[in-house]
Design goal:
single chain; 333 residues; alpha+beta; six-stranded antiparallel beta sheet; 6 helices
Length: 333
């Protein structure tokens, strides 16, 4: 039987590393090893995988940040098909290659030269909104508290973290804090996102923002801190997010890309809106959704409060607000 490690999250997502029978490979940051993962969270000599007598055994080599199998830190583990291995920020899944179409794939990482062959050059797969787009996530791993670090455009995004914990089937809560001390929480149950919140600590939340809207907003955060806390058992909530996590992330990023086209034409969250007086535009020309948004402006005034109290998505609400401003139903100030 032929096996390989397929990279399902991280810098080399989409690539595969073949595992040859009766051989031992070493994973590390050092260029002399078989699988080279050049990032801060990977130790110079991090782990090794032995494939002898039909068994595949993974051993951590006393690495600083540890080696994880299916979300649990391990020193030695016998791998089976479907197991997910986390080294640094790379998540790899053990697969059977003799059951696939047999199409060749480029190695996802540099491998040491051997058997007279030249050393191949690493090639990362084409990027997409679900991929890790940067060289390394600068995070730390603590046994008691789990993973923590900073969110940054040049380092790690919330989307990266969601994908990582989803692929690793983690159960816990991802706690995010932005530079304005707004705290967001994304809850995972065996890797699936099922709830999210947004609030300022020690302050009452005025609007009960739906969890899916909270999740979509958190995906857009580009700065702040994060930590992953384990939860056992995972708490339940009255209104939980439904849907496959990957599809939710794709929809959230799609909405965000479209939302940027509208946000630049609208005032900021703290800006006030008011109905034009006297109102010449006909209310009968508005859709039911636009009328609901107009009512929210009458009740709350501020752009941010209108977005929070709206039952529609931020994208739909911004579309309504822009229409109402452009057609002289609303004005700023």
């Amino acid at each position: 039987m032929a096996y390989a490690l397929r990279f399902i999250a991280g810098r080399f997502k989409g690539g595969e590393f073949p595992l040859k029978s009766n051989r031992e490979i070493v994973i590390g940051r050092g260029s002399e090893f078989d699988m080279v993962l050049d990032e801060d969270m990977v130790s110079r000599r991090h782990a090794k995988i032995a494939t002898f007598h039909g068994q595949i055994v993974l051993q951590d080599l006393k690495s600083t940040n540890g080696t994880f199998v299916n979300g649990e830190r391990t020193s030695v583990a016998r791998l089976k098909v479907g197991d997910k291995v986390l080294v640094g920020t790379s998540v790899m899944e053990l697969i059977r290659t003799d059951e696939t179409t047999g199409e060749s794939r480029p190695p996802a990482v540099p491998v040491a030269a051997g058997g007279g062959s030249s050393k191949p050059t690493a090639q990362a797969p084409p990027s997409s909104i679900m991929e890790t787009q940067h060289a390394a996530m600068r995070v730390t791993v603590d046994r008691a508290r789990g993973m923590s670090g900073r969110i940054s455009d040049n380092d790690v995004t919330v989307t990266d973290l969601v994908e990582l914990f989803n692929a690793n089937r983690r159960t816990g809560v991802l706690v995010l804090t932005d530079p304005d001390d707004v705290e967001g929480r994304i809850f995972f149950r065996e890797g699936a996102v099922y709830y999210a919140t947004l609030a300022r600590p020690n302050q009452k939340q005025e609007a009960p923002i739906p969890p899916l809207k909270c999740f979509f907003r958190l995906l857009t955060w580009t700065a702040g801190n994060f930590r992953m806390d384990a939860l056992n058992p995972a708490p339940s909530f009255d209104t939980e997010i439904e849907g496959e996590t990957r599809n939710l992330v794709l929809e959230g990023m799609r909405q965000f890309d479209e939302l940027k086209l509208y946000v630049e034409h609208l005032p900021g969250r703290t800006a006030r809106l008011r109905v034009v007086h006297p109102l010449r535009a006909r209310l009968s020309a508005l859709s039911a959704e636009a009328l609901d948004t107009l009512q929210l402006v009458l009740n709350h005034g501020e752009v941010g409060k209108v977005l929070d109290y709206s039952e529609a998505s931020d994208l739909e609400t911004c579309q309504d607000l822009l229409y109402l401003v452009q057609n002289e139903y609303l004005t700023t100030g």
